[in-house]
């Protein structure tokens, strides 16, 4: 049977017959949703966690920074260390570990204990996403890969825009510890479903340190993808990590309504992901320039016009629309630039993505502690605008043979 065009290691024999297809794609998306919700849940819980455990909001932001930094390291590390192990076994082990880590978070008596558990979350995030993010090419026929990729990376968007608001609402209703406990249960469920629905996935082309080095050092377009990821994701999370104080302190949204505002952000983001996500495979450069420019514009408008409840909520919805297709567009850019090294390219993307989350949250925390809340919006807008400029100057990927 023939090999799919432009993607190494995606022979038809790699696609399972009894297990695979839509259920397998769906469970990978569930895994990424679970892990990204784990990473970003503190966005909606900064205030109650900080209040109970006695830390300032900027310090509580370390709950996002620490796993992001760890995930940036674990993405390439797990890809290399995984070697010739079956990907299904590695993915199940990683997400099962997050279930235990979130249970520790739910029971943590001190902030240091909670932060320690977040290290385990970071390891799982980087490793799972690096291996799982490129699996769409092995689970479905070539013509269905763009839609399947959008579904898998929809897990990232849905986590940001539904997982975080849902966790925030649960935290408001039952306490922040209940939100972490719910994530522990979700992680356990995702582990069972991964084992049940994902086919055996032996590595087709194991990633090595040399492979990563050649890919990053030998292709300017891959380096541009990494740079744009750092700028765009960093800018987004410099502001979004502090969405709760932005909505509450700057826009004046009542505490009990912030979860609903974030849920609106989520609905808009999901709509954008599935509306434009598959099309970004055809023109990832144009999509990224448009997305980065839209994020920069919305954040600037939020800083200018979001100082009242109507403006804050309306611009939160606009922010969700702008953000929605970001993750899948970045993945499609990296796959288009390195079609014969999908797993290695995804590992580099995940490394940059999570490093950007960590550094963005850290920068936003420093800005928030030093200035008024709108300053994080200007910071994010500037970084997103720089990302748009960098992508606009990049050479387009070569067309698939």
Automatic annotation (TrEMBL):
<protein>
    <submittedName>
        <fullName>Putative MFS family arabinose efflux permease</fullName>
    </submittedName>
</protein>
<feature type="transmembrane region" description="Helical">
    <location>
        <begin position="222"/>
        <end position="243"/>
    </location>
</feature>
<feature type="transmembrane region" description="Helical">
    <location>
        <begin position="90"/>
        <end position="109"/>
    </location>
</feature>
<keyword id="KW-1003">Cell membrane</keyword>
<feature type="transmembrane region" description="Helical">
    <location>
        <begin position="58"/>
        <end position="78"/>
    </location>
</feature>
<feature type="transmembrane region" description="Helical">
    <location>
        <begin position="148"/>
        <end position="170"/>
    </location>
</feature>
<feature type="transmembrane region" description="Helical">
    <location>
        <begin position="115"/>
        <end position="136"/>
    </location>
</feature>
<feature type="transmembrane region" description="Helical">
    <location>
        <begin position="24"/>
        <end position="46"/>
    </location>
</feature>
<dbReference type="InterPro" id="IPR020846">
    <property type="entry name" value="MFS_dom"/>
</dbReference>
<dbReference type="InterPro" id="IPR011701">
    <property type="entry name" value="MFS"/>
</dbReference>
<dbReference type="InterPro" id="IPR036259">
    <property type="entry name" value="MFS_trans_sf"/>
</dbReference>
<feature type="transmembrane region" description="Helical">
    <location>
        <begin position="313"/>
        <end position="335"/>
    </location>
</feature>
<feature type="transmembrane region" description="Helical">
    <location>
        <begin position="347"/>
        <end position="369"/>
    </location>
</feature>
<keyword id="KW-0472">Membrane</keyword>
<keyword id="KW-1133">Transmembrane helix</keyword>
<dbReference type="GO" id="GO:0022857">
    <property type="term" value="F:transmembrane transporter activity"/>
</dbReference>
<feature type="transmembrane region" description="Helical">
    <location>
        <begin position="176"/>
        <end position="201"/>
    </location>
</feature>
<feature type="domain" description="Major facilitator superfamily (MFS) profile">
    <location>
        <begin position="24"/>
        <end position="398"/>
    </location>
</feature>
<feature type="transmembrane region" description="Helical">
    <location>
        <begin position="288"/>
        <end position="307"/>
    </location>
</feature>
<dbReference type="Pfam" id="PF07690">
    <property type="entry name" value="MFS_1"/>
</dbReference>
<dbReference type="GO" id="GO:0005886">
    <property type="term" value="C:plasma membrane"/>
</dbReference>
<keyword id="KW-0812">Transmembrane</keyword>
<dbReference type="InterPro" id="IPR050189">
    <property type="entry name" value="MFS_Efflux_Transporters"/>
</dbReference>
<feature type="transmembrane region" description="Helical">
    <location>
        <begin position="375"/>
        <end position="394"/>
    </location>
</feature>
<feature type="transmembrane region" description="Helical">
    <location>
        <begin position="258"/>
        <end position="276"/>
    </location>
</feature>
